[in-house]
Design a protein that fits this description.
The complex is a heterodimer of chains A (437) and B (453). Chain A is of the alpha+beta class. In chain A, 44% of the residues lie in helices and 19% in strands. Chain A is globular and about 60 Å long. Chain B is α+β, with helices and mostly antiparallel strands and 453 residues long. Chain B is globular, with a radius of gyration of 23 Å. Classes of the chains: A alpha+beta (437), B alpha+beta (453).
């Protein structure tokens, strides 16, 4: 396969260049001053909107954990003159997909519509964000659903591992998602608290909007003003406290009666605006970013220790982590951890020229693979906006990745992969010694 | 090769003049054009051109799945799918995915009861590369003991992750055994029983590969930024030389499980809240009373397909018996399929309360209380979801793969909006009466360790 490989690599450079022009992003500002990114595409009679407000569950008030999530889930449960059933009936009659959720730092929303029903779709969006009802029977129902959802998540090893990891790495910081706090506080949350939370979160300040599909700039501008124009300007969001990354290795085991244990290893990474960011992206890819990665080869292919093993960068506004995730039969968890940790040490010695070249080709081309549907394009561009990237980032990304040198990867590996900052979480019934970090 | 006209407004105008405008307007939305042709060796090819993004997806689906296994040798189809990523005479072990990745693409595969699919998404100028490799492993796969041994552990880990770690998945396995009959094709888990997977060897997988992997037992679907001409040329060049094999037609039992109705319970310390489900044997597009297949899609939509469906309104919104209540039905199968009702009860509600409430809603339908208005709403929702699915390259290719690997045709796919729009309230009632019978039902209870009353 040598010939094939050379051909592929040579073509890779041309590929990166040609893909940059794949989509044209316009930036619009409406008469009322709402900004949005727009990709026009009339190949399907569908429009997808991805948007977010600038506060999320990490700014839940004290003793109000879970309030932001609950508030977001209630936004489509009736608004203006429409009770929950009437609102959903209007949605279904026009085939409008509208949903809200809360992440740590945002309340996010998505709207999907057939272009024949644009006006109705944006009218429902307007009602949801400006006149939500928060009827008490819906509050009770959503509250119960969230609490049951938490109990169920508490029995899924991967969810428990995720929650445990966040609690350990972000101890004392609002990012430490506190689900027991949610369970305690949610039953006491009042309708007034929900109204107040909605009023403080749903503002134009910090609103980020991306639209993709069968709609032009003038039409989008008109409809955005209609949907969001009635929102108050709002205050800038308060800054979250500074996060101090762990400086000691920690290992947390959570006992669960499952045949396969869930494993996470988290390391504090570097900020999104660090000059080494793209080197870190390359590092995460070579380490555990796909079927060619070192972890996949060593853990799965050679030893059959896991079905899934990966590493990825995860960013919040004030923190970033490199997280390795896997799952192994309880009697083999110790082996998996040993192999993974050996790889974390080995990659500090650097990567081969071939690994670097292949990672660059993949990472330059792979963004285009996310352009599968209107919604996926909208989500991708929206996440770039949340990360405060410029509109031409997709054009420049290939060059930024292409400029990464082997020594950059080695340097960033040594910056990130430090044993003393490693948090290891195992959820299950692992056999053998796994406690040493 | 056959150029298909998109479904236009003509049908809508002639057949549906009296119907509401919303439905007619959805019918007017044209399907994306597709081209089809068949190579001399029997490989069926579908091309779905779309220039919205500079990517192309190749999906090769074989007409074989876990339902083609025999009891005692379960898990072969899925294990073989894993081994397809090992070497061939031409390609070294694991080079398939590595080559795709180093060319900026992604690949994966899936195994179902009736089909096994392999797919890659990549830049259009790499389509030939992935076609060459996919055609290569259609005929040149080498299954080596040394590669099979560690991969067996991977397959078992996948089973642990998807099934053994998930109490509801274990209950679903048990429910299918009752519904379709122990040791019968659709009753055997796609992941295989762990004891079987531990015993499978090179001989089992090789024999299965030789029996089912052939161009005349496969469908190739290419979607994205390419042309029919380009795909035709490449398919002839790479798949054309692969010889056809004699393929024995697949069979599925005409009957479901014996001794129904049955109840299956799983009490598990890992279950925090109970769940109630009832599955009914149901006809598919291919098996049983197939004339009900479209009406059943309308039925599940209006009965339990959304938050305004009958189940949700009655059990969740009004009576507050449940946190959620849904139904589901998939008509795309070679054999019989199932119609499922699932209720997540409100804390403190009893099994009897749930069963009475669901029973009351079913009785209304069985008594003939189905309005033209709610049928039309369900039809609108179904047609709209089909338009949304055309918005995605991935779901577009899967739609064709599912149909064409289970005996369906493109003509049927094209006719689907009209067939859905033609369903009348009395068809929905007749379909419900046909499947909602005790002798086709399995009730399953997922409960905490201490049970659920």
């Amino acid at each position: 396969m040598t010939v094939l490989r050379c051909m592929a690599l040579a073509l890779g450079l041309a590929l990166a260049a040609s893909r940059a022009e794949a989509i044209e992003i316009k930036e619009i500002t409406t008469p009322l001053g709402i900004k949005a990114w727009l990709v026009e595409d009339s190949s399907t009679p569908v429009v997808a909107l991805s948007f977010s407000f600038a506060s999320g569950s990490s700014s839940d008030p004290e003793n109000g954990q879970g309030l932001t999530s609950l508030t977001a889930s209630l936004l489509t449960d009736g608004a203006g003159p429409l009770d929950a059933q009437a609102f959903k009936q209007r949605q279904e009659d026009a085939s409008v997909g509208l949903g809200f959720g809360a992440s740590l730092e945002n309340v996010t929303g998505s709207l999907r519509l057939l272009s024949a029903h644009r006006d109705e779709a944006f009218e429902l969006l307007r009602l949801a964000v400006t006149e939500p009802r928060f009827d008490s029977d819906r509050i009770e129902q959503r509250r119960s659903q969230i609490i049951v959802g938490l109990s169920q998540a508490d029995q899924r090893p991967a969810s428990v591992a995720q929650r445990t990891m966040m609690a350990a790495v972000f101890a004392g910081h609002p990012y430490a998602a506190n689900s027991s706090g949610v369970r305690e506080n949610l039953p006491t949350v009042t309708q007034q608290q929900i109204r107040d939370r909605a009023a403080s979160v749903l503002t134009r300040n910090g609103l980020i909007v991306t639209a993709v599909g069968d709609i032009d700039a003038a039409e989008l501008s008109r409809l955005l003003d209609r949907a969001f124009g009635g929102l108050p300007a709002g205050a800038p969001r308060p800054e979250l406290p500074i996060w101090t990354p762990p400086t000691k290795p920690q290992s947390v085991n959570v006992d669960r009666p499952v045949p396969q244990s869930s494993v996470l290893i988290a390391l504090p990474a570097i900020p999104r605006d660090d000059p080494d960011w793209h080197a870190a992206v390359v590092l995460a890819h070579i380490l555990g970013g796909g079927q060619q990665s070192r972890l996949f080869t060593e853990v799965r292919e050679k030893r059959g220790l896991a079905y899934s093993v990966s590493s990825a960068l995860r960013t919040q506004r004030n923190a970033s982590l490199l997280v390795v995730a896997t799952g192994s039969a309880s009697e083999r968890v110790a082996d998996s951890l040993r192999v993974i940790k050996a790889e974390l040490v080995r990659i500090r010695e650097g990567v081969t020229d071939q690994e670097l070249a292949e990672a660059k080709t993949y990472l330059s081309g792979s963004m285009a693979l996310l352009l599968d549907s209107s919604s996926s394009v909208a989500n991708l561009l929206h996440s770039l906006q949340v990360d405060r990237q410029p509109r031409d980032y997709l054009d420049r990304r290939a060059a930024l990745i292409g400029a990464v040198k082997a020594e950059d990867v080695r340097r960033v590996a040594r910056r990130i992969l430090r044993e003393e900052a490693m948090t290891t979480v195992v959820v299950g019934k692992p056999a053998g010694a796994i406690a040493e970090p | 090769m056959r150029r298909r006209a998109a479904l236009g407004g003509l049908l809508a105008a002639t057949l549906l003049t009296p119907r509401a405008s919303a439905l007619a307007s959805l019918l007017h939305v044209s399907r994306r054009p597709s081209d089809t042709f068949t190579l001399p060796n029997g490989l069926e090819v579908v091309v779905l051109p779309s220039s919205r993004a500079p990517i192309v997806t190749q999906l090769l689906v074989y007409r074989v799945g876990s339902a083609d296994e025999t009891y005692g040798r379960t898990g072969i189809a899925h294990f073989l799918e894993h081994m397809m990523f090992k070497g061939t005479g031409v390609l070294a072990a694991s080079e398939f995915s590595r080559t795709v990745a180093r060319n900026g693409g992604r690949d994966n595969a899936f195994t179902g009861f009736d089909m096994t699919g392999y797919h890659q998404t990549i830049a259009p100028d790499r389509l030939e590369l992935v076609m060459r490799m996919e055609a290569d492993r259609m005929v040149n796969l080498r299954i080596l003991e040394s590669e099979l041994r560690p991969e067996r552990e991977v397959v078992l880990e996948e089973r642990r992750m998807r099934v053994d770690n998930v109490p509801s998945a274990m209950l679903d396995e048990a429910a299918r055994e009752q519904l379709f009959g122990l040791h019968k094709p659709y009753a055997m888990p796609t992941a295989g029983y762990a004891d079987d997977v531990k015993r499978l060897g090179v001989g089992d997988l090789s024999a299965f590969y030789r029996r089912f992997y052939a161009p005349n037992n496969a469908v190739l679907i290419v979607a994205g930024d390419t042309t029919t001409e380009a795909v035709h040329k490449l398919a002839e060049k790479h798949y054309g030389p692969v010889p056809a094999r004699a393929i024995v037609p697949r069979k599925r039992p005409a009957e479901g499980g014996a001794g129904l109705p049955q109840r299956v319970t799983r009490a598990d310390v890992r279950v925090p809240e109970p769940r109630w489900s009832r599955d009914f044997l149901a006809p598919s597009y291919r098996a049983g009373e197939t004339r009900h297949a479209h009406a059943l899609q309308v039925l599940t939509r209006l009965f339990g397909g959304s938050e305004t469906s009958r189940l949700s309104r009655a059990l969740v919104a009004q009576d507050k018996i449940a946190l959620s209540a849904y139904s589901g039905y998939g008509p795309t199968a070679l054999g019989l399929t199932s119609f499922e009702i699932t209720v997540q009860p409100m804390r403190g509600r009893s099994v009897a309360e749930v069963e009475t409430a669901v029973g009351n809603q079913m009785k209304r339908v069985l008594d003939g209380d189905v309005t033209a208005q709610e049928v039309e709403r369900a039809q609108n929702q179904l047609l709209a979801s089909a338009i949304y699915s055309q918005d995605s390259l991935a779901s577009g290719t899967r739609l064709y793969a599912n149909a064409l690997s289970t005996g369906g045709s493109i003509a049927e796919l094209d006719d689907w909006p009209r067939a859905i729009a033609a369903v009348r309230p009395n068809d929905v009632v007749a379909a419900a009466r046909h499947i909602w019978r005790d002798e086709g039902a399995v009730t399953s209870l997922l409960t905490p360790a201490e049970g659920w009353k």
